[in-house]
Amino acid sequence: MPDLNGMLLFAAVVRAEGFSQAAREMGLPKSTISRKIAQLEQELGVRLLQRNTRSISLTQIGALFYQHCENITNEVEAAKATIEYTHNDVAGLLRIAIPVSFNQEVIASLCSGFMHLYPGIELDVQFTDAEVGLVGEGYDIAIKYGPLQSSDLVARLLFERQPILVASPAYLKAKGTPATPKDLAQHDGILLGTLRSAPIWPLGKGNRKTMASFKRRVRVNSSVMVKRMAMDDFGIAILSNSVCKNEIASGTLVPLLQEWPIEPFKVYGVYSSRRQLATNISVFLDFFTKRFGSQESLQSMMM
Known about the structure:
One of its GO terms (biological process) is DNA-templated transcription. InterPro entries: LysR-type_TF_proteobact-type, LysR_HTH_N, LysR_subst-bd, WH-like_DNA-bd_sf, WH_DNA-bd_sf. The protein has three domains: about 5-85, Arc Repressor Mutant, subunit A, CATH 1.10.10; about 90-160 and about 265-300, 3-Layer(aba) Sandwich (D-Maltodextrin-Binding Protein, domain 2), CATH 3.40.190; about 165-265, D-Maltodextrin-Binding Protein, domain 2 (3-Layer(aba) Sandwich). It has helices at about 5-15, 20-25, 30-45, 60-85, 105-115, 170-175, 225-230, 240-250, 280-300; strands at about 50, 55-60, 90-100, 120-125, 140-145, 155-160, 165, 190, 200-205, 210-215, 215-220, 235-240, 255, 265-270. A five-stranded mixed sheet has the order 4-3-5-14-6, covered by helices on one side. The protein has a five-stranded mixed sheet with strand order 11-8-12-7-13. Strands 1-2 form a two-stranded antiparallel sheet. By secondary structure, the protein is α/β, with parallel strands linked by helices. Helix 5 links the parallel strand 3 and strand 4. It is globular. The mean pLDDT is about 85.
């Protein structure tokens, strides 16, 4: 039987995207975690992780094994949560509005984990870019991109990502590499947005900021499709560093105009201030903050 602690540590390494960060989060020496994972691989007789000096990635069997380890982690947390919420059960209907551009496979996996952890919850998840009324339409939580307009709603920062400009080597060979933001006007762009989104990217930070226009080749509201179209040589795109870090490491995508860093984009969980923060809202936002990054990382390692 595989060592349970080794399985939990393996899941922690995958969520943290590396041994060093897992060691910091777990409060254990990196060497201890590395040794435990090596022992686990030896016990199983398979390699779970591919390691190099810059990053780790899951093997095919490692990705399958991780799902089981993550389920075990959820069960351990559920056991603790049972005690923590004995007098305030997490249960009932939770209605959530999420932007269409979110990776729906990541959200589906996250929601499945949440419902396994809190079986008394009934979820109603709607992917929409419309302005939903939290009170009038009965939503408990809306996931929104910042900046937010001022209102009587309460906003909790869930995470932020660093956007970067990228393109494929083949596209750059055919069309050239932009040296300045003004050069983008001569390039095809893949726009993540809606019908109201203009072909303009805000580049730079603080006082050194400019609005760069480009020739829109594709406009979609899916970050997965944006990355696919960029990899298939259709133009330049803005993606978060977490979404395309493996492609950059392998040379499939090339970062551009790095001397013009883009302001991080922020994602908030918004709920009504007209009533006290319900326990099920609080625990979902806690869960989302903790798990979204690990689910996003898992998918990127499996692609």
